[in-house]
Design goal:
Order of helices and strands: HHHHHHEEHHH
Helix content: 40-55%
InterPro entries: Peptidoglycan-bd-like, PGBD-like_sf, PGBDSf
Structural class: mainly alpha
Number of strands: 2
Organism: Pontixanthobacter luteolus
Low-confidence stretches: 13-31
Protein name: Peptidoglycan binding-like domain-containing protein
Keywords: Signal
Pfam family, one: PG_binding_1
Shape: globular
Radius of gyration: 18 Å
Strand order of the largest sheet: 1-2
Mean pLDDT: 85
Strand content: 5-15%
């Protein structure tokens, strides 16, 4: 299990590098001239977040993660043509993305980092409501949007890992496709569309 957790962490850490490359950051600042008030943890800097991360059970750390989740939820409401900006990310993914960025940007305010994250997530968003489906069995399960499962089927098909329909049905063939893809990419072999797998498969 330690090796599995390490592989997942490495995959999501790589996501942080892609998210905050100079090109992404510049694109994300295109609408950044508008001034607005920031409340709560958004006014604190990256160094404060990293300090709170030493005890992930602390109220201060939970305050940071709660602010991040709330910020992205608000973005879902106000971003045009958006139902969910981060359709497969969870609190653990947000933590890794933020921490990797903050390691080299200690003075940056959390609200600014999250706005960059919003800009980087736009190509991945779901534009309209989509039902969710639980897939997998036993130790490895995932709950994903049907839209995302269809995207995964299409992507696996284009890469030669899957030859079935794009119907959001979790079949034995689809499970084998995920396993082969995960094996080739040195990901945890879960056979399901977990966050690290979806990031590696669907990130443009």
């Amino acid at each position: 299990m330690k090796n599995a957790a390490l592989k997942t962490a490495c995959s999501l850490a790589a996501a942080a590098v892609i998210l905050f490359s100079p090109v992404q950051a510049q694109a994300g600042s295109s609408g950044g001239d508008r001034r607005f008030a920031v409340e709560g943890a958004g006014n604190l800097d990256c160094a404060s977040f990293l300090d709170s991360r030493k005890d992930r059970g602390s109220p201060e750390y939970q305050r940071f993660i709660g602010f991040a989740e709330g910020y992205l939820s608000a973005a879902n409401l106000y971003e045009p043509a958006t139902f969910d900006l981060s359709p497969w990310h969870n609190a653990a993914a947000f933590d890794l993305i933020l921490s990797n960025h903050c390691e080299t940007h200690g003075e940056e305010k959390l609200a600014n980092v999250l706005q960059r994250m919003v800009s980087s997530f736009r190509p991945l968003r779901i534009a309209e409501f989509s039902p969710m489906v639980e897939v997998g069995s036993g130790e490895y399960r995932a709950i994903v949007y049907e839209t995302i499962l269809k995207r995964a089927q299409a992507a696996l098909g284009q890469l030669g890992y899957y030859a079935g329909p794009e119907d959001a049905k979790y079949t034995t063939d689809l499970r084998e496709g995920f396993l082969k893809f995960q094996r080739d990419k040195q990901l945890v072999e879960t056979g399901v569309p977990d966050p690290a797998t979806l990031w590696t498969l669907l990130n443009p």
